[in-house]
Design goal:
Length: 522
């Protein structure tokens, strides 16, 4: 057997060609005519770098390991490759799917399926979508009717496979999207099971996309793929090219007033605000709404259907401000996001890149503003190491501090404030832990029982539903159920805010000068 370590170490990693080298058109790529028409309908004029580098390889039938994040056009890259292959051969009589696309989160799976529908509009290809949390029967019946391409999250796909709803024997095209995220979310066992369920690697084409082609990802690639060609679009390209970054050293209690001040100054069209914790996200959204903004909050706590509604409202411009935990940082394709705020410096340096990559999509210009407070300052060096640059510091001038008119946040136990739909149309629902960004534990739960509302989720499920009833009729005070699964990390010890405010001012003076010296104000 070949030592995969050795291959990983010696394999050259070709970068994407320079932009000038890749000025080809979609028609140069010899895509089937129905796909070319769909690409034109979608307004794509020229292939993005990952498409220009990856598609020619895919069209020769090679396996591909692509280093690319959302925003680079990777979805169209693997969908066009997959569809071209499927259009060349007839569909099996029994209607089994021929392509399987696996994504780590429901949002991403939904987005991929939606892109696939658009690209397949002039073909007879049928798309099936499988993800946990909703509609087991509906999704199953669609699969039974016969589809060509199945897009789904690992747990639900395996569930369907094990229940003989999904037949995987005819798969000739396999895509693993956001492979690094699959490792982070603990899905890798499920992925391995899926790889074992589909035909062997020499009888299928495999594609893997990941923000980083780290050693774990590459080991997986070499184990289950057929000498994949590596293509990469580096994070630096994404971060540095089109995103203007700013860093504000600020005490924790001044973050809200600063956010209000910056919103007033920047007048952004469409904004994402990232927070590290659900608690902060909820309160922040409420405060924004009580300061005259139309904001909504989204995290893994919000039931799936409601999350989809919120994303829809954001996409349609009914909401111009979305506060989110990292659930929204990948896979949500909303164009024209002009500003990303990191209300908290993320714990994971990679998340910084994923968050700010939500703006400046497909070549647009965007702005990323990061608040560095006493609680999360410890994360900043890791972020700067990862992106290989100092984020330019901006002084927090007094004029930037805007009074927060909201008052005290009336947190309601067992209810998540989402800000959308607005008052009067409100159907705030109780947290149902185990959403997409609850994937680390959510992904590991018993899928069938948790996914299917009809199947009682053992004890925990019964207790939860009884509490809901109690809380709803107002007779019994509700209590937050004790969190199941691994113990929570103890809360960080907070440094004294006043001391931090002084230290922050000193730090921004030190770094601000450097930022200007480097001409980073652009
Ligand atoms: P993705 O990297 O797949 O998340 O795609 C990012 C965004 O770029 C999506 O909104 C796509 O519709 C868009 N896109 C993909 N390919 C192209 C292209 N060749 N030209 C313009 N936009 C594109």
């Amino acid at each position: 057997m070949v030592d995969t370590h050795e291959i990983v170490a010696t394999q050259p990693r070709p970068k994407c060609p320079d932009k000038d080298e890749i000025r080809l058109n979609f028609s140069d790529l010899k895509l089937p005519e129905p796909l070319l028409r769909a690409v034109a309908d979608m307004g794509f004029e020229t292939p993005t770098p990952i498409q220009a580098a990856g598609l020619p390889k895919l069209l020769t039938g090679a396996d591909l390991a692509g280093q690319a994040q959302t925003g680079t056009g990777k979805t169209a890259c693997f969908l066009l490759g997959t569809m071209t292959r499927l259009l060349e051969v007839p569909r099996p009589e029994d209607g089994s799917p021929r392509a399987l696309i696996v994504a780590p989160t429901r949002e991403l799976a939904i987005q991929i399926a939606s892109d696939a529908e658009q690209l397949a509009v002039h073909t007879a290809l049928e798309i099936g979508l499988c993800y946990g949390g909703v509609d087991w029967d509906k999704q199953a019946s669609r699969l039974r009717d016969g589809v060509d391409i199945v897009v789904g999250t690992p747990g639900r796909l395996l569930d369907f496979y094990r229940n003989r709803v999904l037949r995987l024997g005819s798969i000739e095209s396999f895509v693993l999207d956001e492979a690094d995220r699959m490792f982070d979310m603990g899905f890798i066992k499920d992925i391995t099971s899926l790889f074992r369920a589909i035909p062997p690697k020499h009888r299928r084409q495999s594609m893997l996309f990941s923000a980083t082609l780290n050693e774990s990802v590459m080991r997986l690639a070499y184990r289950f793929m057929n000498e994949p060609v590596e293509v990469s679009v580096t994070p630096d390209e994404i971060v540095l090219d089109h995103i203007e970054q700013e860093l504000y050293h600020v005490a924790s209690h001044e973050k809200m007033p600063l956010l209000l001040g910056l919103m007033k100054r920047e007048q952004p069209q469409r904004t994402l605000v990232f927070v590290n914790t659900k608690r902060v996200g909820e309160e922040l959204t409420w405060r924004l709404n009580h300061n005259g903004y139309q904001a909504a909050y989204m995290s893994g706590d919000i039931p799936q259907k409601k999350r989809q509604k919120i994303i829809g409202a954001f996409r349609e411009g009914k909401i111009d401000l979305l506060v989110a935990t990292d659930v929204a940082s990948r896979g949500i394709h909303v164009d024209d996001i002009t500003h990303v705020f990191n209300y908290d410096v993320p714990d994971d340096a990679e998340d910084y890149v994923h968050r700010i990559g939500r703006t400046a999509r497909a070549g647009a210009h965007g702005k990323a503003l990061t608040f560095c407070c006493e609680d999360y300052a410890v994360n900043l060096p890791g972020v700067e190491r990862y992106i290989d640059m100092k984020v330019p510091t901006v002084f927090v001038e007094d004029v930037l501090i805007e009074h927060d008119r909201a008052g005290r946040f009336p947190r309601q136990r067992g209810r998540v404030y989402t800000g959308w739909p607005p008052e009067g149309d409100r159907d705030d629902e109780r947290a149902d832990a185990g959403g997409a960004d609850g994937g680390r534990d959510g992904g590991r739960r018993k899928r069938r029982s948790d996914d299917k509302p009809a199947a009682a989720a053992a004890d925990g499920g019964r207790k939860r539903s009884r509490r809901r009833k109690d809380g709803a009729d107002g007779r019994t005070p509700t209590r937050r159920p004790r969190a199941a699964g691994p113990r929570q990390r103890p809360a960080r010890r907070r440094r004294r805010p006043r001391a931090w405010a002084a230290a922050a001012r000193q730090e921004q003076r030190r770094r601000g000068a450097r930022g200007r010296d480097l001409g980073l104000e652009r």
